[in-house]
Write a structure and sequence with these properties.
- The chain is α+β, with helices and mostly antiparallel strands.
- It starts with a helix and ends with a helix.
- The protein is elongated, with a radius of gyration of 31 Å.
- The chain has helices at about 1-15, 20-55, 95-100, 135-140, 165-170, 215-220, 240-255, 265-310, 310-320, 325-360, 370-395, 400-405, and strands at about 60-65, 70, 75-80, 105-115, 120, 125, 130-135, 145-150, 160, 180-185, 185-195, 210-215, 230-235, 260-265.
- The protein is about 55% helix and about 15% strand.
Length: about 400
């Protein structure tokens, strides 16, 4: 009964000063909206990444330069050092050939990014990617050729395969297969066009806007220097991925003189590590939103102190007719919590609206869960309680006689 009365009083107080109430809730609204959009978008990204990695085939192994993970005795990853993947590549052609010879490896393809302009007559490909790889690329990563064929290691290094976006930008309205494009002013013949990738995430690497050329051609364009960023290997059906993984690690250790300056990841581990990176980003971003919510609690505290001063006479009247200090405390704490709840509801609505904008802008679907909403409401309750507790005790400790004299 008393709770219902206090709720009505709290709502009446908020309605009586709408602008001040909104400004009081503003930091809570922003903090909650930030928390919701960060949490849901990262969960959406994690789901999309997992889906993309799983689409590459069930038994993918990736080899990267630098020791990016630490493992325990059972081989489970215990930590991930993202910074280790930066720096000069330690992967070599010998590593690639050694992996291709391992029993159970169906296909192994290098990824070597080449810088330079891709042109057709006077038109230049904007934001394009030039990747030197080998004939295994399509099979290793499950990327299909829609027209023509992928180039082969037959010694002809003047063939290229292009993404569907390159066709639209450079070769629109022309005979695509057999067309000639220029890479660093050198002519290459288009022998294949990749099937359009529907990926909603590319992290700056748009395969639809990519040009794939033979590894030998990439070396020539690179002045003979080999800088392999990644080697992708597909395990053949009927072979144990864990055993092939061990063989890959063993042969690379042998090639590198026992120095583990590389990282081999199985497909599920690749998902795990990318999720770990996203979780780290989410945690950092959530700390910022928590700081904003703390600011919201401080704002509520200050406004409630002003409210106590303005309502001193009202408090005196209530005490004089029998209201106990506990009743007064409860009233003001509930008012602060209701303010925080109202701000949280508006923040959740703003978060939903931002989610629609994210989906429309980058085609990532935020994932909303009941846990996210529960966490928001728990936090908002704590924010309101923290902000209202001191003003509530101050109000309950007022002397009723002195309070009645207040004008």
């Amino acid at each position: 009964m008393m709770l219902g009365i206090n709720l009505k009083l709290a709502i009446a107080s908020i309605r009586s000063a709408k602008m001040r109430s909104f400004l009081t809730m503003f930091a809570v609204i922003v903090g909650v909206a930030a928390f919701v959009i960060i949490t849901t978008t990262v969960e959406g990204l994690k789901s999309a990444v997992s889906s993309e990695i799983n689409s590459l085939g069930g038994n993918l192994l990736t080899v990267n330069s630098g020791k990016a993970v630490e493992r325990d005795e059972s081989g489970e990853i215990t930590s991930f050092n993202f910074a280790a993947t930066f720096g000069a590549s330690t992967l070599t052609e010998k590593d690639l050939e050694s992996i291709r010879k391992i029993e159970g490896v169906k296909a192994a393809a290098p990824q070597m990014i080449i810088t330079g302009a891709v042109t057709k007559d006077d038109t230049e490909l904007k934001g394009g990617l030039i990747m030197a790889t080998n004939e295994d690329y399509s099979e290793a990563l499950g990327q299909e050729v829609e027209f023509g064929q992928f180039f082969t290691d037959d010694g002809n290094d003047r063939f290229v395969v292009i993404g569907s976006g390159v066709v639209d930008e450079l070769l629109a309205g022309q005979d695509n297969l057999g067309s000639t494009i220029q890479i660093r002013d050198q002519d290459f013949t288009v022998v294949g066009i990749m099937k359009e990738q529907k990926s909603s995430i590319d992290f700056g690497v748009n395969l639809n806007n990519s040009v794939f050329l033979p590894f030998a051609a990439g070396k020539k364009l690179n002045g003979g220097t080999v800088l392999i960023q990644e080697i992708d290997a597909q395990v053949a059906d009927g072979y144990d991925a864990d055993e092939v993984f061990d063989d890959v690690e063993a042969v690379l250790l042998k090639n590198h003189g026992g120095t583990e300056d590389f990282t081999v990841l199985k497909q599920d581990e690749l998902i795990e590590t990318t999720n770990g990176i996203f979780d780290l980003i989410k945690s950092f971003s959530q700390v910022i939103s928590f700081i904003m919510l703390f600011v919201g609690a401080i704002v509520i505290l200050l406004i409630m102190l002003i409210t106590v001063t303005e309502r001193t006479r009202e408090i005196g009247i209530r005490k004089s007719i029998g209201a106990s200090p506990n009743h007064i405390r409860t009233q003001f704490v509930i008012e602060a919590v209701v303010l925080s709840w109202a701000g949280s509801v508006l923040g959740i609505l703003v978060g939903f609206l931002l989610g629609f904008l994210v989906k429309a802008g980058i085609d990532i679907t935020p994932i909303y869960t009941i846990n996210t909403l529960l966490v928001v409401m728990i936090i908002s309750t704590l924010v309101g309680t923290f902000g209202g507790l001191y003003p509530a005790f101050r109000a309950s400790n007022l002397d009723p006689v002195e309070a009645l004299r207040h004008e």
